[in-house]
Amino acid sequence: MNSQIVARSSVVVTKALVIAQPWISLILAGQKDWEMRSTPTSHRGWFGLVWKGMGSVYGVARLIDVNPLQSPEQMIETIERHRIPEEMIRSGEVASWNTPWVLADVRRLETPVRYRHKSGAVTWVNLDEEVTDAIARQMNHGPQSGEVLAAIPEPETLTVANNRKFVGEVEITQGNIDHKHIYLRNFFDGFPSDAIGGSSKAEKAAREIVVDWGQGTVRTDLDGSKKLFRARGWIGSFFRANGVVAGDRVRVEETGPYQYNVTVRIS
Fold first, then answer.
1. pLDDT at residue 230 greater than cutoff 80
2. DSSP structural state of residue 208
3. pTM reported for the whole predicted model
């Protein structure tokens, strides 16, 4: 029996880690082997790589160690491991994400495996048996050379951390806070045209974008009449979580195709 098939069949993936873009692209491309987290973990061994907001496991990796908490200076010295740009480190934006989880043997799945995100799961997700089996089938019947798939970059889809595109910034009014919306009109042309719909849900756009607001993600299209995110249920939570008051500014950045990050700049 082929020894490589035996080795692959011994890989059992029962849990997965939710990772946001662009970090997951960098991991899958073999360009990042430290996943920075705010706390250590006791887990060691295989786990799935879930692309945050996409609902699928895109690869697997082994967690082999957790390094001590890193100072900003240490993080700057090890950028090639975690790929967080120096300006982000110095700004304090990632101050709490200073614990390296060390990855090895990253393998990209040829076909992403859909999974069910259970209520309450934030960091680790326990995978159903059928998801574990689907991952195992791909691991068993993938390339027999033992080559790590993630060592082959995908430049057309990869968004590196220091290439995040600024879309726009807007001052928040009391009306925004009261009515739970964010005006996008000053930079509305920065969004893809096929994600812009009409004034009602019946005129929903052909595509949706994924918005990462710091404590979760939401899929939505854009209201082309009011020039707002159509899905607004998350905006009140976003304002409360960041203590937003009138005069603060919201910044929108594109982190990948149809993927955006929304943050607050306090006035």
1. yes
2. -
3. 0.55
